[in-house]
């Protein structure tokens, strides 16, 4: 404890309590630890010490303390000034408050008086207006002896006055005003009579289709502000009656009784021991469609009744704005929604109750759709022209949804009807026979019939068109599986007649082409679906090509094999032993391989190519074969080495014979040599090329029609044997292998092959001067540079 007494912090702490400290010191003295006199001495010493320290601090900071005292005196003066200002401000505020409060209170009281006065005036004005309108009503009623004998115009005037009173009573509170309350019972009585008369006029006008009366009744109800509720109630009554009529019209029991009565009334229609149901399918269908026509007429009458509420026929003012305040959608949309739900429900229940109803509605869906279209055509005559699109997009689609299930069933049966003749025509069984024209005509006839039945509705016809796509795709699959693909189907060697497989494929492809032509002719009557079906029809061409392409390739290979025999000919001997040219008017002679080629071409034309009855497609195949023959012959002829003048004449004779043979082939198919295009131009240019000088070979005037590869081959042939070599000789290939390599590679690749031929060292190994370039090599480089843009 004594140690802590020396700590100044003990006395200056916030928690220091003198009483607690004194008690603590006394308690320590009583315990014998310290004498109280000692504690008092220490405390006195500390006080003296502190006093001395304070005196020293005052002496040290004497001038600073004097300055602070002076500042405090100045601050005291300033505070006195501020205090005086605040007092003055308070006095001013009190004075201002005294000046404002009285006028404010007075103005407030006047304002309250004014508001109450205005309220009273407004109420009096409304009472006056009420009395004035009541007086008008009394005057109007005084003009007629009895309200029940009033005219339509008078009813409209009375309703207009009652409407004004209705608005006034809603806008103001007349409770407690006796002059108003006394007249309310009489006004309500008149209003009830006018309302009843308007409702009677509405029903009578709709029943008799009296549009002026309907418009008058609606105007009366509109003036009474009861139009929306009354029209909705009226529409609901029509819907209820229509639902009952639809239910009765599609009642299976009633239909069955009607069919039974009709069948017993016809002689010979029923016999003992014969099933009644199986013999009355036609009567069922007739009864169903008769009832459907009645139902659609009743729905039409109901719709016209509803739409008669839509606007004033005299001034075209819409009455449905009030209806929209009650219904989420318009009145007509509300009507269609409920009607379609009820109609769909009754149709489904009737279909489930009788297979005959199901069969009639599904099988005769186009007729059902036609009834709907006639119905909507009738309704549209009552619509404003500007609303026809809205009507179609909402009401028509809503009602069509109610028969969507029958559309699905009809489309399923439709595609089945088209599949059946396709399966029988393109049969893949053991006893299968080639499709005949009658079979193909039957397929087209059924497809045309399906489109014709659906022609009345664009959407249905497009759906049927999609079914035709499925049927044609199925026909393509069946036709491909029906085609023969055994080795005998592609056998073209020898001189025998066409095999059974080949004849089968010819008949199949001719049938497919007849189907292709017939379908395009059919689509001339249905231009709306051409874009939809055209792709599937064109797929038939691909099927024809897939079936015939292998045979065409074998024919080409057979003719190429014959042309390859040109390699065995000698075009350098002076004594040629060629056979006479087959063209009777020619004086030259052709090579034996060309004679064989002519015979093979005639054989293929007789046994195979003449069987094509594919129109333009067949012509394209013949042109393709002819172009391949010209290209392949030019390729082989350009590599004939050595070649002297007699050999050139021999090649010229071969060209003449080749032209004659191809011309005969093309003429039998209605074609000419000029239609072969670039290949025939190349053949004619090659004939002249044989007799040109080397300097003329690079002239585009003489050789522009000759392919660069053919021209380069011929230039190499003209070079000495110990200089440039033909590309296939460098690699040890045969002419057939080289031809196949060219077919499988691009122009860039054969250019690289030619360049490799130019850089071989074979000619240098024979003692040729390394520094000299052969003239033919320079010509080849020039051709590659000009024709193929190759830089060296």
Automatic annotation (TrEMBL):
Cellular component per GO, a single term: Golgi transport complex
Coiled-coil intervals, chain numbering: 79-127
GO BP field: intra-Golgi vesicle-mediated transport
Record's keyword terms, sorted: Coiled coil, Golgi apparatus, Membrane
UniProt entry tagged with the keyword Coiled coil: yes
Membrane topology: Peripheral membrane protein
Keyword Endoplasmic reticulum carried by entry: no
Protein name: Conserved oligomeric Golgi complex subunit 5
């Amino acid at each position: 404890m004594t140690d802590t007494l020396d700590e100044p912090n003990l006395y200056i702490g916030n928690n220091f309590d003198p009483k607690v400290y004194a008690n603590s010191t006394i308690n320590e003295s009583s315990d014998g630890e310290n004498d109280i006199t000692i504690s008092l001495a220490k405390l006195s010493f500390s006080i003296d010490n502190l006093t001395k320290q304070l005196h020293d601090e005052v002496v040290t900071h004497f001038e600073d303390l004097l300055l602070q005292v002076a500042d405090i005196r100045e601050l005291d003066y300033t505070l006195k000034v501020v205090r005086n200002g605040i007092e003055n401000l308070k006095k001013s505020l009190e004075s201002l408050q005294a000046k404002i409060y009285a006028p404010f209170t007075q103005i407030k009281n006047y304002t309250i008086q004014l508001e109450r006065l205005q309220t009273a005036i407004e109420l009096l004005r409304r009472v006056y207006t009420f009395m004035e309108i009541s007086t008008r009503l009394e005057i109007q009623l005084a003009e007629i002896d009895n309200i029940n004998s009033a005219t339509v115009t008078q009813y409209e005037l009375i309703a207009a006055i009652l409407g004004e009173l209705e608005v006034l009573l809603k806008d103001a509170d007349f409770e407690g005003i006796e002059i108003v309350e006394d007249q309310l019972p009489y006004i309500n009585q008149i209003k009830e009579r006018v309302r009843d008369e308007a409702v009677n006029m509405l029903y009578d006008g709709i029943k008799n289709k009296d549009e002026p009366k309907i418009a008058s009744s609606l105007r009366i109800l509109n003036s009474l502000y009861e139009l929306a509720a009354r029209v909705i109630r009226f529409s609901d009554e029509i819907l209820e009656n229509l639902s009952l009529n639809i239910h009765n019209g599609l009642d299976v029991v009633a239909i069955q009784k009607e069919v039974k009565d009709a069948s017993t009334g016809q002689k010979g229609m029923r016999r003992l021991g014969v099933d009644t149901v199986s013999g009355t399918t036609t009567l069922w269908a007739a009864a169903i469609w008769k009832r459907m026509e009645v139902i659609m007429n009743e729905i039409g009458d109901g719709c016209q009744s509803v739409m008669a509420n839509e606007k004033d026929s005299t001034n075209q003012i819409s009455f449905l704005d009030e209806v929209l305040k009650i219904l989420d959608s318009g009145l007509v949309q509300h009507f269609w929604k409920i009607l379609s739900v009820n109609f769909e429900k009754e149709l489904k229940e009737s279909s489930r109750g009788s297979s005959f109803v199901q069969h009639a509605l599904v099988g005769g869906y186009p007729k059902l759709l036609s009834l709907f279209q006639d119905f909507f055509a009738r309704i549209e005559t009552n619509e404003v022209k500007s609303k026809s699109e809205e009507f179609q997009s909402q009401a028509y689609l809503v009602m069509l949804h109610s028969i969507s299930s029958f559309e699905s069933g009809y489309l399923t049966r439709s595609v089945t009807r088209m599949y059946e003749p396709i399966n029988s025509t393109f049969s893949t069984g053991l006893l299968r026979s080639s499709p005949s024209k009658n079979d193909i005509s039957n397929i087209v006839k059924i497809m045309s019939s399906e489109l014709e039945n659906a022609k009345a509705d664009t959407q249905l016809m497009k759906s049927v068109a999609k079914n035709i796509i499925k049927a044609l795709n199925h026909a393509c699959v069946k036709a491909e599986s029906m085609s023969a693909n055994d080795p005998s189907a592609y056998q073209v060697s020898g001189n025998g007649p066409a095999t059974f497989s080949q004849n089968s494929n010819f008949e199949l492809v001719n049938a497919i082409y007849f189907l292709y032509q017939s379908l395009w002719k059919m689509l001339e009557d249905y231009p709306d679906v051409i874009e939809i079906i055209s792709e599937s029809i064109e797929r038939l061409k691909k099927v024809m090509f897939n079936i015939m392409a292998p045979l065409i390739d074998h024919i080409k290979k057979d003719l190429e094999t014959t042309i390859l025999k040109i390699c065995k000919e000698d075009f350098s001997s002076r004594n040629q032993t060629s056979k006479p040219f087959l063209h009777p008017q020619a004086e030259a002679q052709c090579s034996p391989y060309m004679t064989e080629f002519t015979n093979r071409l005639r054989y293929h034309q007789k046994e195979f190519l003449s069987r094509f009855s594919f129109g333009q497609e067949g012509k394209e195949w013949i042109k393709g074969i002819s172009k391949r023959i010209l290209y392949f012959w030019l390729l082989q002829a350009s590599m004939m080495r050595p070649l002297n003048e007699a050999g050139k004449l021999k090649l010229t004779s071969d060209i003449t014979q080749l032209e004659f043979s191809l011309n005969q082939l093309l003429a039998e198919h209605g074609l000419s040599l000029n239609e072969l295009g670039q290949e025939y131009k190349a053949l004619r240019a090659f004939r002249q090329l044989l007799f040109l000088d080397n300097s003329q070979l690079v002239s585009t005037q003489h050789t522009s029609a000759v392919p660069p590869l053919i021209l380069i081959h011929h230039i190499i042939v003209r070079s000495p044997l110990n200089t440039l070599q033909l590309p296939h000789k460098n690699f040890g290939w045969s002419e057939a292998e080289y031809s196949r390599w060219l077919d499988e590679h691009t122009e860039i690749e054969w250019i690289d092959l030619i360049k490799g031929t130019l850089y071989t060292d074979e000619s240098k190994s024979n003692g040729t001067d390394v520094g000299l370039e052969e003239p033919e090599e320079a010509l080849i480089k020039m051709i590659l540079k000009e024709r193929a843009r190759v830089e060296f």
